[in-house]
Design goal:
The protein is an alpha/beta fold. The protein folds into three domains: about 1-40, no CATH class; about 55-205 and about 275-455, Alkaline Phosphatase, subunit A (3-Layer(aba) Sandwich); about 460-535, 2-Layer Sandwich (Arylsulfatase, C-terminal domain), CATH 3.30.1120. It has ten helices and 20 strands. The radius of gyration is 23 Å and the shape is globular. The structure holds 2-acetamido-2-deoxy-6-O-sulfo-beta-D-galactopyranose (NG6) and calcium ion.
Length: about 550
């Protein structure tokens, strides 16, 4: 307890907030500082110590490809997500929260670094053997919280690269730099995605359960070893997981993947057990750190392809594997909530649940997701989906709960984004950041805590074409080369050779293009977008 008291003093001295954002952060920062004093006072009289007085833990659960319409508290009716519904009932549900990119790597890069991904080349969807794209020692969401005294952990999907271009990742040796070099104290990750090799977990600096006599080789260029591929041996594949596009390289557990691998048999995951494995790791991290403030980034494999639910969930929804893995994801959320309940940490923990990008139905395997969709709309009433510049590409479910601090059952229309987490939590924890750190991240902590309905004014989104949100107005830049519909996923990309302008307040479905009718408004918004793009920003 002494530790808290002395840290509180340091925060008071250094506790100015970033870049003239004092007004917005004052309430949260004061709460944060007061909680230190409350704890230090309570520490002198231990009977007064209550969990609600401690520094709040932060648990960020990020689903993969979960759509705005895939959750029952966002309107889904063919699928039930009781645990996310519980969070919405006990906390704040955002209706206009975004990932800043419509695919995984750029979205997560932005959330970690506070930098728009289009400012940095090489932040597109990464292969499983790519180098780390976040420079070690740069300011990141976990490094901010670590500096604030939190123990930081990541469990689940990483997809931000490992190793360096000069020293590519060695799966049989020490794997670094990676999560531990960008601010995490503890890490148990899927290196890239479930559909990419290597199909193993990496725990801190090493592949978990690797037998040194069976070393791993990975290649994204050519076949390695003599294990069969889906292309050569489709008869070896699980029936519901035949590839529809790509995904026809090395077969692991009867599922062919993107990329080639050999070796590492004892370390390979079993797809049916991924959710169980990482959920129990996430809960263990909470349990092990229950005495001190912690930040857990729990990035699930669900609901990405290949969709392979545990037998407990298989066939439990009317929508086939895609529905079943939504139920499985919701179960993972529930396990985390129950762990917090059991450890009496619920009141002292901020829980955030969101998704890295919008939904996709056919993402490479013939798993009957399309036939079994029925009336379900993965993007709700939004247009587009994963990869798209239309709203369903980036507008995602976003729930925040902090019992007693955030009013229960409220809805917020504030425009907020995952990229805002670094600046918001820096302000919340009274951190002073270097002037050039997290340049595109805005402090929206008051909106996140439900104290204000005011989020950010502008937000640049990276789907198939670049777009700008300015309040409820939206433009999508013309794109002469892109297709209007993705050949593989059959998702409307939002690409058009003509400028697009929508007023989402009255046209959420982006059907009524106003650009030609209102050229001045188009020009004005385009000017705002250009200014943001041309802003001089340090990109480490
Ligand atoms: C695409 C894959 C898709 C998925 C996506 C990444 C093909 C044809 N498609 O390249 O299946 O893996 O990358 O998804 O290979 S994300 O959510 O991690 O961005
Ligand atoms: Ca994703």
């Amino acid at each position: 307890m002494k530790r808290y008291a002395s840290e509180a003093k340091i925060f008071l001295i250094t506790g100015s907030v970033k870049k003239g954002e004092k007004m917005k952060t004052t309430v949260a920062a004061i709460y944060f500082l007061c909680s230190f004093f409350a704890v230090s006072l309570a520490a002198e009289n231990p009977s007064e110590t209550s969990s609600s007085l401690k520094r709040p833990n932060i648990v960020l659960i990020l689903a993969d490809d979960l759509g705005y319409g895939d959750v029952s508290c966002y309107g889904a009716t063919r699928i039930h997500t009781p645990n996310m519904d519980r969070l919405a009932a006990e906390g704040l549900r955002f209706t206009d929260a975004h990932a800043v990119a419509a695919t995984c790597t750029p979205s997560r890069f932005a959330m970690m670094s506070g930098i728009y991904p289009w400012r940095k080349p090489g932040t597109g969807i990464l292969p499983g053997d790519a180098a780390l794209i976040i420079p070690p020692q740069s300011t990141t969401l976990p490094s901010i919280l670590k500096n604030a005294g939190y123990t930081t952990g990541v469990v689940g999907k990483w997809h931000l690269g490992l190793g360096t271009p000069e020293s590519p990742v060695n799966w049989n040796g020490e794997i670094k730099p990676g999560p531990l070099e960008v601010g995490f104290d503890d890490s148990f990750i899927i290196p890239a995605t479930g559909d990419r090799v290597p199909c193993v977990f990496v725990e801190n600096h090493h592949v978990a359960n690797l037998d040194p006599n069976d070393p791993i080789t990975v290649s994204y260029k050519e076949k390695v070893g003599d294990e069969p591929t889906g292309r050569e041996h489709p008869e070896l594949l699980k029936e519901a997981l035949l590839p529809s596009h790509g995904h026809d390289m090395t077969i692991v557990n009867g599922i062919s993947r993107i990329g080639y691998m050999t070796g590492g048999k004892s370390a390979r995951w079993i797809d049916e057990n991924i959710a169980d494995t990482i959920t129990s790791k996430a809960c263990r991290f909470i349990e092990e750190n229950k005495e001190k403030p912690f930040f857990l980034y729990f990035a699930t494999h669900d609901i990405h392809v290949p969709r392979v639910p545990h037998p407990r969930f298989a066939g439990k929804t009317p929508m086939g594997p895609r529905g079943d893995v939504i139920a499985e994801f919701d179960w993972s959320v529930g396990e985390v909530l129950q762990t917090l309940d059991r450890l009496q940490l619920t009141d002292n923990t901020i829980v955030i649940v969101s998704s890295d990008n919008g939904p996709v139905v056919n993402d490479g395997y013939l798993d009957h997701a399309i036939d079994l969709l029925g009336s379900h709309k993965p993007g709700g009433s939004l247009r587009g989906g994963k990869g798209s510049a239309f709203e369903a590409g980036t507008r995602v479910p976003f729930l925040v709960r902090w019992p007693g601090k955030i009013k229960a059952g409220e809805v917020s229309e504030a425009l907020v984004a995952l990229i805002d987490l670094p600046a918001s939590f820096a302000a919340f924890t009274g951190q002073t950041l270097p002037e050039d750190a997290v340049p595109d991240s805005e402090n929206v902590i008051s909106a996140l805590l439900g104290e204000s309905q005011q989020g950010r004014a502008d937000l640049v989104l990276a789907g198939a074409s670049m777009s700008l949100r300015h309040g409820t107005q939206k433009i999508i830049l013309p794109n002469k080369n892109g297709r209007a519909v993705s050949v593989n996923t059959v998702i409307e990309t939002g690409n058009s050779p003509r400028p697009q302008l929508y007023e989402l307040q009255t046209d959420l479905g982006e059907r009524n293009n106003l650009a030609e009718k209102e050229p001045e408004r188009w020009e004005e918004l385009q000017g705002i977008l250009q200014n943001i793009r041309q802003k001089k920003v340090a990109v480490p």
